[in-house]
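Design a sequence for this backbone.
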């Protein structure tokens, strides 16, 4: 059976995750508060819904605990990101990946039980720096 993913927050980060998972043939539920964002992904994701994931009943009615992997890509609103993550943990979602906005956010996300916390700008900076160094090493 195909793996079922849900992506919460369709900004640049969540949107590109959603698009890439869909291109790889995965089942993806795209979720955002903003109707325009949801419409943008209606033809890309398997399903796209307008929902506020800080509402426990909304998450329940989406059947969120049945997804194999949920990605929380709510950036600016740290409170919503933390609350959403906490409810996913409490619902027993097996894999939860969350985008952190800063070190404090990351610390709280780890503490409440997120399985993987990513910090895209920082992680990408580190990767690129390693890449540059290893390229230079090869060049000499
Ligand atoms: P990026 O840098 O990836 O564009 P960003 O940090 O700008 O991300 P935000 O705009 O803060 O990201 O949030 C990403 C998306 O999350 C937005 O489209 C926003 O509507 C959505 N979002 C915020 N809060 C919620 C929520 N409670 N439920 C669902 N979606 C939400």
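Sequence:
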């Amino acid at each position: 059976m195909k793996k079922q993913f849900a992506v919460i927050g369709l900004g640049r980060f969540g949107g590109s995750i959603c698009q890439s998972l869909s291109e790889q043939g995965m089942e993806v539920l795209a979720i955002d508060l903003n109707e325009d964002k949801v419409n943008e992904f209606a033809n890309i994701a398997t399903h796209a819904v307008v929902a506020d994931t800080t509402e426990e009943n909304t998450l329940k009615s989406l059947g969120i605990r049945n997804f194999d992997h949920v990605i929380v890509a709510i950036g600016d609103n740290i409170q919503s990101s933390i609350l959403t993550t906490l409810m996913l943990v409490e619902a027993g979602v097996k894999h939860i990946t969350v985008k952190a906005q800063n070190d404090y956010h990351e610390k709280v996300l780890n503490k409440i039980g997120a399985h993987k916390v990513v910090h895209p700008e920082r992680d990408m900076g580190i990767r690129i720096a390693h890449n540059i160094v290893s390229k230079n090493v090869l060049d000499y």
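The two ends are 48 Å apart (CA to CA).
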